[in-house]
Amino acid sequence: MSEETKDALWSQPLSPMEGQTLERIEQESKEYIRLMAYYRCAMMEIETKFRVLNEEYSLEYDRNPISTIKTRLKRLTSIREKLEKKGCPLTLKAIEENLNDVAGIRVVCPFVDDVYTIAEAFLKQDDITLIRQKDYIYNPKPNGYRSLHFIVEVPIFLSHEKRLMKAEIQFRTIAMDFWASVEHELRYKKDFTFTDEMAQELLKCAEMSSELDARMDKLRQRLRQ
Ligand code: 0O2
């Protein structure tokens, strides 16, 4: 496909035509399906890198610094919502240029130390480019949310080209993941808004989970002595 044809296709609005739903686009638009396949490849590349690191640590230190790795591809409805919020059109070009989290990888570790060890080892790899970092562990969000976020660019190698794809990686401990998953579940209940008292209660739970991480770290240090 020539660059001009590709550019024209990539800039075409993905808005549903008459009688066509977003689900139809998701299932039938060839170029959209192709772009999503590229994002899936990026997730596979990144997931493999973490699996390799986990394997290596397991050989060297007889323990796994990663408990679980989850991946998710953003659905078209969420993509549309996010582009609308940013005032961008729903085109493939706008998706690639404006969204960093179409491919999402979550790495869950037992200890806070593990989060930073794994994140650092990952960034040392010479095909990974860090685009942005947000450390909500060091600086938790006002609601208590904690996690380390990276936006990275990773190459995927196709038969005739190399493409750089963006992905969002969230690193958390098991305790942080528990809090974030439950908070997310509550927040996304339909027709539901937190009262101040509930938000305060959630913040207290986040502080408890932080305390739990700190106590577990201390226990681990005692075991190492
Ligand atoms: P989903 O469905 O989880 O993907 P940006 O992508 O930079 O434009 P933002 O909001 O500045 O958007 O990014 P940020 O703060 O790094 O947060 C991105 C993701 O972190 C969110 O994705 C959530 O997954 C998670 N997150 C951030 N804050 C919270 C929080 O308070 N509670 C929980 N449970 N998760 C949080 P999305 O797009 O919101 O949703």
Tell me briefly what this model is.
By secondary structure, the protein is α+β, with helices and mostly antiparallel strands. It is built from 8 helices and 5 strands. The N and C termini lie far apart (62 Å).
Notes on the structure:
The chain has a single domain (3-174), classed as Beta Polymerase, domain 2 (2-Layer Sandwich), CATH 3.30.460.10. Helices cover 53% and strands 19% of the residues. It has 8 helices and 5 strands. The chain has helices spanning 3-11, 22-28, 30-61, 76-85, 92-98, 112-123, 174-187, 196-224, and strands at residues 68-73, 103-109, 129-135, 148-157, 162-173. Strand 4 and strand 5 form a beta hairpin. The longest helix has 32 residues, at 30-61. The radius of gyration is 20 Å and the shape is flat. The mean pLDDT is 91. Ligand 0O2 binds next to helix 7.
